[in-house]
Amino acid sequence: MVENHESKEYSGDEVVVRSLRPFGTSIFTEMTVLSDKHGAINLSQGFPDFDGPEEIRRRAAEAIIRGPNQYAPSIGVPLLRQAIARKMRRFYGLEIDPDEEVTVTSGATEGICATMLAILEPGDEVILFQPTYDVYPPLVSLARARARYVPLQGASFKVPRDELAKAFGPRTKAIVINSPLNPCGKVFTRDELSFIGSLCREHDVLAVGDEVYEHIVFDSREHVPLLAVPELRDRAFVVSSTAKTFSLTGWKQGYVIAPPALTGAVRMSHQFITFCGQSFLQEAVAFAIDLPDSYYDNLLADYTRKRSWICEELERLGFKVTPPEGTYYVLVDITPLGHDDDLAFCRMLPEEAGVAAIPCSFFWEGRSMGRKLVRFCFCKRDDTLEEAMRRLRQWNARK
Ligand code: PMP
Ligand code: GLN
């Protein structure tokens, strides 16, 4: 006999945990879907419209045919961990133990997730600078910890030292530092990091560095990894990935570097999140990291040129432009063009102008600031950027 099971209709809120309810669909997804719907040029979600070097991709393709295609060691293959340690010596003069201090993850995103879930207890506080990259608040929330926001100051997004010092307290467990910072391109100075490091020591706080744009730093500024700050060498996690450096955002190859005890914590949670990264890609990633200096120099030269060009073009269109210190994003103030609502502007632009961008208020809690700011990415071929600017000029002339 067939039983008649009445099917239950769940509402979304009934199923999803409370800690995730305040967070809607990622703004990157919303804008890319909208861009595709209108056949717009997508300068919203940050991914290149060209693929990284063929020699890297060829190695990955060969590895799929030859193997390995089974699970990698949970912490990553030795070849890749050694390449990551070599890179830290080559670029930053840091001695890293590949066996005790490096963990390979599925992108920087998993590295940040594994780190947060490994170190946060319910009720802990985590200091987040604003603007804040979108994954940190939900991860803090998932760990039942609390975010304490510190807005960066002024047009150059300086660290507000007094306010930051006041944000540290007995419940503070960690601070997240994203440098270069998405979306505004701020590069934290050695002096700022050293100040943050002293506060971390004073209050026994851990520091998590999201450094995925480490090789896109302009005008001879230096990228200082948290582990190169003496005050932080014993208490920092450096998270990075190959997404931006090698224009392979779809590969999701990341890693966490931290002193042995901290690495032990990351490995503990990582083994129960994904267990391991993608075995067939790890050898190709090691090869990529070891590419000669000329690769890294050309990457920076290309983005330096694209940055200058797009900043000039956007300024000529009438936007107020803040050239970034790092990353491949540029923020513009939309008020000179008669707009004052970033979200309405970005929802209108793909259909009206055929170009997509990101509304920046999503990088501030409760969209409390940034409503006049819009982010364009310039990790695109020159002809794509030229066409995007041509469309914006046409739209502007029609208005
Ligand atoms: N952190 C920041 C600041 C980012 O902008 C991004 C976007 N790529 C990531 C992390 C994600 O990196 P991955 O794709 O390696 O997970
Ligand atoms: N980091 C990319 C950006 O800022 C987006 C990554 C994602 O889609 N989550 O555009």
Describe the structure.
The structure is a single chain. The chain contains 13 helices and 13 strands. 44% of the residues are buried. It is globular, with a radius of gyration of 22 Å. α4 (78-92) runs parallel beside α10 (279-289). It folds into 2 domains: 12-51 and 294-398, Aspartate Aminotransferase, domain 1 (Alpha-Beta Complex); 54-292, Aspartate Aminotransferase, domain 2 (3-Layer(aba) Sandwich). The strands form 3 sheets. It has a 7-stranded mixed beta sheet with strand order 2-8-7-6-5-3-4, sandwiched between helices. The protein has a 4-stranded antiparallel beta sheet with strand order 9-10-13-12. Strands 1-11 form a two-stranded parallel sheet. β9 (320-322) and β10 form a beta hairpin. The chain has 399 residues and is an alpha/beta fold. Bound molecules: 4'-deoxy-4'-aminopyridoxal-5'-phosphate (PMP) and glutamine. Glutamine is lined by residues 26, 28, 45-46, 182. 4'-deoxy-4'-aminopyridoxal-5'-phosphate binds next to α5.
Alpha-beta content class? alpha/beta
Poorly predicted parts = none
Counting H and I runs of at least 4 residues, what is the number of helices? 13
Main sheet summary: 7 strands, mixed
End-to-end Cα distance = 68 Å
- CATH level 1 name of the largest domain: Alpha Beta
Mean pLDDT, to the nearest integer, reads 96
Kindly state the percentage of residues in helix.
Answer: 40-55%
Strand adjacency order, main sheet = 2-8-7-6-5-3-4
Search tags:
Aspartate Aminotransferase, domain 2; Aspartate Aminotransferase, domain 1; four-stranded antiparallel sheet; single chain; binds glutamine; 2 domains; 399 residues; seven-stranded mixed sheet; binds 4'-deoxy-4'-aminopyridoxal-5'-phosphate; globular; alpha/beta
